[in-house]
Amino acid sequence: MAKWHKQWAKKARSGLLDALGRVCVRCGATENLTFDCKVPTGDDHHKGSTDQRMTFYLREHEKGNVQVLCHPCNSSKKAREDVDPWEDITGVAKDNV
Q1: How many Å separate Cα 74 from the centre of its chain?
Q2: Of 14, 25, 68, 87, whose CB neighbour count within 10 A is largest?
Q3: 96 vs 63: CA distance, rounded Å
């Protein structure tokens, strides 16, 4: 990856964290922050380069589908497969919407 791609991705990540408040929406942590899709979209974006991942998260942010989670909260979310992500976000089961 070209050096400018990495620099762009670093600035884009910082800007998106700023826009989202730089705080984990679950526990309030301000370190080890990650981006998370509120409604899962698959994991193909994890296989891309840093700039490709940031492009993905910026597009998802435009759709309102990105939140900030610290690494421990993001990991615990992944482990809870029994929870409907829609209900987890809204507090309302999708069938009741």
Answers
A1: 9
A2: 68
A3: 22
Residue pLDDT, tens place only, 2-59: 888 889 989 999 999 999 999 999 999 999 999 999 998 888 888 888 899 999 999 9
Residue 67 phi/psi, 5-degree rounding, is -135, 165
What does the DSSP assignment read for 25-61? TTT---SSEEEEESS---SGGGGS-HHHHHHHHHHHH
Query: What pTM does this model have?
Result: 0.75
Question: Hey, which residues does 66 pair with through a beta bridge?
Answer: 37
